[in-house]
Amino acid sequence: MKFKKNIDSLCVDNLKINALAAITKAKSGHPGIAIDAATILHTLFCYHLKYDPKHPLWVNRDRFILSSGHGSALLYAMLRMLGLISRSDLEKFRSYKSNTPGHPEYGLTPGIEASTGPLGQGIAMAVGMALAESQVNKRFPEFSHYTYVLCGDGDLQEGVAQEALSFAGTNKLNKLIVLYDSNDVQLDSFVKSVNLESPKEKYKAMGFKYILVNENSVKKINKAINKAKYSNIPVFIEIKTIIGEGTKKENSNLIHGQPLTNEEISDLKDILTFKKSDNFEYLDDVKNYYIKNIYAKNGVAYNLWNPSKKLMNFLNNELKINLNDINLNKNDSTRNTTGFVLNNLGNQYENIIAGSADLSSSTKIKGVNGVYAPNNRLGRNILYGVREFAMGAIANGIALHSNFRPIVSTFLTFSNYLIPAIRLAAQMRLKTLFIFSHDSVYAGQDGPTHQPIEQLASLRAMPNLTVLRPADENEVKGAIEYYFNKATNPVVIATTRQNIVSTNVTNKLKFEDGAYYIYHGKNPWTLIATGSELNTFYNIGKKLNISVISASNTNNLESLNYNINKAISFEAASTFGWAKYAKYNIGIDEFGISATEKDIIKHFNLDEISLQKKVEEIIKRN
Amino acid sequence: MKFKKNIDSLCVDNLKINALAAITKAKSGHPGIAIDAATILHTLFCYHLKYDPKHPLWVNRDRFILSSGHGSALLYAMLRMLGLISRSDLEKFRSYKSNTPGHPEYGLTPGIEASTGPLGQGIAMAVGMALAESQVNKRFPEFSHYTYVLCGDGDLQEGVAQEALSFAGTNKLNKLIVLYDSNDVQLDSFVKSVNLESPKEKYKAMGFKYILVNENSVKKINKAINKAKYSNIPVFIEIKTIIGEGTKKENSNLIHGQPLTNEEISDLKDILTFKKSDNFEYLDDVKNYYIKNIYAKNGVAYNLWNPSKKLMNFLNNELKINLNDINLNKNDSTRNTTGFVLNNLGNQYENIIAGSADLSSSTKIKGVNGVYAPNNRLGRNILYGVREFAMGAIANGIALHSNFRPIVSTFLTFSNYLIPAIRLAAQMRLKTLFIFSHDSVYAGQDGPTHQPIEQLASLRAMPNLTVLRPADENEVKGAIEYYFNKATNPVVIATTRQNIVSTNVTNKLKFEDGAYYIYHGKNPWTLIATGSELNTFYNIGKKLNISVISASNTNNLESLNYNINKAISFEAASTFGWAKYAKYNIGIDEFGISATEKDIIKHFNLDEISLQKKVEEIIKRN
User: Fold this and answer.
1) Domains present along chain B, CATH in parentheses
2) Closest-approach residue (CA) in chain A for B420
């Protein structure tokens, strides 16, 4: 293709000034990146991105993630040029109820592929999308696209980005193209004060093709992307830019997060090709050029695309499951029964991709069809390596991509390592399933670092997240059916390492609706428990003729109409949060100990006899 | 020095068999690393580590961190040889109330420098120790030691390790020596299935001197460590080992976490120099050799050490502070007042090291004496880069090292990124201070990814962690005095981005003791609030003649003897956990929105008039 120098400058400058105008009007935002990355965005969207703005959800589109989410104004300015949002939307940047919030929000604004802002995770989600693409592409060759991610210095300093890039390099995700806006400046200092690494040497060592673009020009960037598309390994393009180029604050951290004044924008326009006094204007020449290059070209691509029926079935499969006929062992650990069911489902549905951060031997979560690898793109068992955080964010990218159900696993105590990814899943309401085994101190001899205490409380405190802790094989079925059939947001299933005792009165369907009675007693008191502790309270309930509720999903607990002042909860974990549902809370509000399960139960007085005594004492006192 | 081949083999084999015996007796543990890393541990402890077993807390000792915490049995076997623990301790590996728990626990076992187990963090804590050493060394040249860390493949895959090593390379921490037990095998697979990077190229690019030891021998390892000691940049020694070497399961993941049978140990002994039938035996020859090499040599070093008075003052300074005389602005944001006080203290005390993950411009937390850098080892402002998790773990390493008070900061919502480091600080009861600014949805236009909701609840659910959320300048003083003068565990201080309204009735000393009344009303109801919300409730309390409690530290709330059934809590965050202290909870149980503070208050109905109405309605209903 030919480059028209003037029109490219006009496009880039139009984009810049629109973005700056939005930031200045909002009195808040990040002008630094809006100026320095405009050329990158224009080159990518105008000459490369397979993206039909008339069909922004076209499944075969290229994906673009703005990992540097604080560059949102620039992306919104581009979306406005694509006609996905309006001038008025752009003018309402960062204001109440607009579709142009401070950082990109998935589901709110057309054209936004992922919520970004918490740094590093955009890169990892892009890796997930590239992995998902390789899976669909291998099955259905008519499905084929690139995944681009724009990131900055801060993004790359994040551990989650390093984990994800290491994973991408190892797995040779060649359709992943990282665009590194390398401007040498970050919020608190120059980059060299906090990072002296050689990106070239580092990312080559990590399995990337490295391309340096030492001039922030359409021509050079274009050439690099063209080259990147034919790589057989993932590509890392470092583009040297100047933060806030052309302003008085260029190449300084003052330009990072401080809006320009209208005068400063005017001064900048003196050296740009965009001269209009209305900084929100979309120039006709630019519009026409975009129509020709983007709308027309991609509209044709869209119309020509002819997906097979099999692909459409794959993409439209609702994955409603029914576990009535699956036989599970009683009294088995819930990690085992959960693993068994999911393995079974994996064999039935190509849409299920499962894996672990190097703990599948312990969590029992393992995808089918072999290990995913460059020579086995159909492998649905993902070896994430000991990279919990990237695992969560990559899974989110897989969930965002198309119609996959990503399932990831580690120990409950290590859910801490990926909590920021769980939060982004919750904000985006993604269908990611997090399985956390070794869900209590009973996990034993590995000791306090491996024993969850406060994790269930932390997860339950998060909005838009459903936390399930099945007590036995019936509730395991309920938890898994809930995720596939009913969930509209991410789900956590906590499973036991140790064998449990099945109560025989648990109920799959009731469990799916939330908390429910497993025993009705005549005593006015109520016992509430979850997971492996349910059976102990069930036994005590029967003996003392007290009603027992299985309450792993606390959402509807209040609707069960028991007397909270005469209720006792029991979970072998922090009591934090339980007071809302029961006046008396039995649990563990300190860290665990390294000992056998038997000794742990004794140490914390959680055996049936001690617990019954405790329950009787509480009742007696009141 | 000369190497006696036979005695070295005997030492290594003695170590191996003792460690394996402990694992087999416990029926739980990790024999793979115990076998393959024995040579490394023997070489390090016998020929290099400056460590007097008679004075294990000698402040000028070399530090050794076992980042691969699952190798605990091997370390315990070494500690037993050093006389720090007994044979009987080793025999009680992983059993109830022993000092040899499943993973090393700081404070429980002499010779354990840090709790490890959650992978990657040991590396980051070692980086913190090396940083701390460089600070003390620059002031007091008589203080000088190396920091060694032993890590495995899993450790290095963790993002926190990558962040920390990137930081160490950039800061040229040349007395940090990383010993990488490179055995090609991890729990779920061979390493090559999850990581194809070239460590040599990668760590060189990251600023390390790379040394390959391609034979797991005392001689080769010794040579490498000798070389490492004279490097002017940090050193990464890759030691090729064979997991479970000499057993039938060698070079396979079966050996990673499965105890050997006694027969398998017997078989292994056939090819080792340790032949005793008692696998817990400490051979006389080995003991004598250790006495000569370790006890004698290091005892001399200890005795010869002659610290200056100034150094001793530095090390023994109790840092008890008094903020009575410091004048703070009223109505200023608590991030500003906190930053002002800490800056002031930083100028007074050399023991204070502060920094941020590239957000000091926003959190207002910045150390004094310039930016820490290779040419400014006295700089106490640490630029951690956008590496939140490593920041937390490095700070823990600094806290573990000697008498520093490490202070780190980021936004409250990003506390998620370092929660595993906060947990380790809490488990070890370290004196790390975490300052989290932008502590509520009021932070505004950056939107939901930047607005904390559930974070306060998550932090409060954690054992051994004190969470303080000062309402104004008096409580800021109280929070900081609490940390310095009273805290025996890590502290979180949450600060506001926005200006607050000082109530003038808050009280520094009362705040330090926990929740306290700021207003006594005649109405039987009680209002409870924290941080920036306190003033609103105070105004309402005065108007309605209702008592008001400032309750940022909830620990002693119950002792205030109010009627929980007639209490209303208010925090502009998740209500999760508040039901324990008040029957009625006002808060935000959904994610935030991108808008101005004014619009956010309106959206969530958190203005004084709406809140007063809500309070009146609740009281009326009951």
Assistant:
1) 5-304 (3.40.50.970), 316-494 (3.40.50.970), 508-621 (3.40.50.920)
2) A416
